[in-house]
Design goal:
alpha/beta, about 30% helix, two-stranded parallel ribbon, about 270 residues, 6-stranded mixed β-sheet
Length: about 270
């Protein structure tokens, strides 16, 4: 994966279940475990996680962020896992400043640690935790256009060595009572149809269709019933600039209908 030294791409990854680090052989896990090697020359990471959701943008300005185990019912060893990457209050202030300069109010949070939407993929990508990490939250209105604008605001970070990572789920039907999920379950045709539509829109750089995915994508109501896991994709796309297009860097399925797609935007 060639990168121009003066401008990093932004990426979107699907992080799956919190237990992903404990599941060797799962395709998405093995993909993430090799992904960090594609981006070795970075200075820091800004992660937009589906699992930090506030009313307005906020960044965590914490020197030593805690590892948050924001889930229940998983194997006990998962709760002992720590991701000891440093934070960067300086980078957090840069991020907040860029967002504010775009006319979007932005808070700084001096207590928030890393939720599993951040540390699960980062533990696989960069297991030595050597890069400073700052998190940026999604917003409760779950509005695609506003998250795209949030990404546009932080685009200059890509010339400063900061890898922008959106972490969510390409197909994420959790919360839909009509959708069964589980190990060994089949992938339904509606999930494949949504995923194919998403791949086409992303690789075409079709922001208009993506922003209006609820009306335009097949089975959007099943694929993203509560679209918190879709919003990080819009931030990552926006951060790549107004003419950016996506490249598919991973495709697999997990628990039947969880689409684990990942994209690079440049």
């Amino acid at each position: 994966c060639f990168m121009a030294p003066d401008r990093l791409p932004s990426i979107f990854v699907s992080h799956g279940a919190p237990s992903l680090p404990l599941e060797p052989g799962v395709a998405a896990r093995e993909f993430l475990a090799g992904l960090g090697m594609q981006y070795p020359d970075i200075t820091a990471i800004l992660c937009i996680s589906a699992h930090w959701n506030t009313q307005k943008p906020s960044v965590n300005a914490v020197m030593h962020p805690a590892t948050i185990h924001d889930f229940s019912g998983f194997p006990s060893e998962l709760y002992d896992m720590q991701y000891p990457a440093p934070g960067s209050p300086d980078l957090a202030q840069q991020v907040a400043g860029l967002i504010a300069a775009a006319g979007i109010p932005c808070d700084t949070d001096t207590r928030r640690g890393f939720d599993h939407g951040a540390w699960v993929p980062l533990m696989l990508m960069y297991p030595d935790a050597r890069f400073p990490v700052v998190q940026l939250c999604i917003q409760g209105h779950l509005d695609p256009a506003r998250h795209l604008a949030l990404g546009n605001a932080i685009a200059p970070l890509r010339t400063r060595g900061v890898l922008v990572i959106g972490s969510g789920g390409a197909v994420h039907p959790l919360g839909d009572p009509a959708v069964a999920l589980g190990e060994g379950m089949p992938t339904d045709a509606w999930a494949v149809a949504f995923n194919n539509w998403l791949n086409h829109a992303v690789t075409a750089g079709d922001r208009e269709s993506l922003v209006h995915y609820r009306e335009r994508a097949p089975s959007a109501i099943h694929a993203q019933p509560y679209p918190d896991h879709f919003m990080p994709l819009f931030v990552a796309l926006g951060a790549a600039g107004p003419a950016a297009k996506g490249t598919i860097i991973h495709q697999s399925w997990y628990w039947g209908n969880l689409g684990m797609g990942a994209y690079e935007f440049r």
